[in-house]
Each structure stands twice: as structure tokens, then as C-alpha cells.
Amino acid sequence: MVESNGNGQDFLCLLSWVSPAFPTGGFAYSHALEWAVETGDITALDSLVDWISALLAYGSLRVDMIFVRHAWLAGQDIRQLEEIAAYACACTSSRERYEETVYQGEAFLKAASVWDDSLMLARNPATRWPLPVAQGAVFRRGGAHARQAVQAAGHMAVAALVSAAVRLVPLGQTDGLRAQARLEKAILEAARQTEQCGLDDVGTACFRSDLAAMHHETQGTRLFRT
């Protein structure tokens, strides 16, 4: 475990792990934004913020925050983490959502093992690790508090979606920053709303987004894997 040394090493680790440069391959995934842009659901800054805000309040990003927190709570219990990972995989709404979360999650674990390889060594190779479960486990080992872990994961997810939208809509760089700024309160609120959620509270009401992920599988022209 990477211990806090009083000089901010744990904070620097957290910054590294949520950096866009961290090698999880997130640039290759749009979380179905590509289909939403093609069909005209997302056309500019306002519609992008509305879409992502809904995901934070009622959709997949809210669910991911719940899984981050419970993975953090599981701590060093590898068997419990693997049970949470299996449940998170079972909750994905489509093939592309499943591939997106496990490919990024396992890339995240591998990259984070540069700091601490104990999780990589202890895990069952047959277990697939979705991104929020990998984040919660790694953030806990890195010394992040539960609230920091959830907020950091939310920020990372929103930043990836905004980055995809900048290329897809397309948005200018300044509008991308405006979107990120406007979504900060939504991230904090979603983190607060999920603080007391158990795994039984996992569920979404963003059917358009789930359908978008399914339609993306057969979309004619695709820049992103999902």
C-alpha cells in the first residue's frame, strides 16, 4: 500500500491515476456519445451537459460511483472485491458497455501496479475487473479517502466524455472547458447522493443512453470503440 507521507505523495498518486495521460485507453471509448451525436441528441454545449448530468444523476456514472465506494470499502479483501467486480460486470447494459469497463479497468490495474503490484498478484486471473471496481481498490491502497475516491472517479469519467464530445460534436476547446466546469457541481452532488447507497441500489433510468450503446454496435461509421 502506498502510504501518505505527510508531503502529499498520496495526493500526487491520485492525480496521476485520474490524469488523461494515464494509460487506460479511455480515448478510444465514447460511452455511446458517438451515436448520440450522430442522431442529433447532442449538438452543442448545453445538450452535452444535459446528457452527462443525467448519467451522473440517474445513469451509468451514478452506478459507477456506487461501485467505486463499495470497492473502496472492501479494502484488502480480495474475495469481496472479486464478488463486487462480478456483480458490476453483470450490471452492464450491453456488450460494448461491458467491454468498455473491463478493458479500461484491467488496463488501469496494470498501469497502477507500477506503484503497488499487490492487487495484480493477489487477484484471480479469471476475474474481469470493471473500471470503477479497479479504481476503488487502487484508490484505497493509494491512501485516498472514500469521498476523494468517488469524486476523483467521477471527474475522470466526465473528463473522458467531454474529451470525446470535443472531437465528435465538434466542440471548441473553450466549450469543452465550460462543460467540465458546469459539470463539477453535478459530480459533487452525485457523489453525495450515492454515499449511503448499497449494492441493491444499483440501477439506471437513462434508457436512451443504454440504447445508444447498443445501437453503436452497428453504427456505420465509428471513430470510437463504444
Give short descriptive properties of this protein.
0% strand, mainly alpha, 226 residues, Urease accessory protein UreF, disordered N terminus, globular
Describe the structure.
- Helices cover 64% and strands 0% of the residues.
- It is mainly α and 226 residues long.
- It has one domain: Urease accessory protein UreF, CATH 1.10.4190.
- Helix 4 (60-74) packs antiparallel against helix 5 and helix 4 (60-74) runs antiparallel to helix 9 (146-168).
- The N and C termini lie far apart (33 Å).
- Residues 1-6 have low confidence and may be disordered.
- What global shape is seen? globular
Rg (C-alpha, Å):
17 Å
What is the residue-averaged pLDDT? Answer: 94
Under the CATH scheme, which architecture would be assigned?
Answer: Orthogonal Bundle
Q: Ranges with pLDDT <50 over ≥5 residues?
A: 1-6
The largest β sheet comes out as:
none
Q: Determine the CATH superfamily.
A: Urease accessory protein UreF
CATH topology: Urease accessory protein UreF
Structural class: mainly alpha
Percent in helix: 55-70%
Strand content: under 5%
Give the helix tally: 12
Number of domains: 1
Strand tally is: 0
Q: What distance separates the N and C termini? A: 33 Å
SSE topology string: HHHHHHHHHHHH
What oligomeric assembly is this protein in? single chain
Q: CATH top level?
A: Mainly Alpha
Could you give a short description of this structure?
The chain has 226 residues and is mainly α. It contains 12 helices and no strands.
SSE blueprint:
Elements: H1 9-17, H2 33-38, H3 45-58, H4 60-74, H5 78-90, H6 95-112, H7 118-122, H8 131-141, H9 146-168, H10 173-182, H11 184-193, H12 207-216
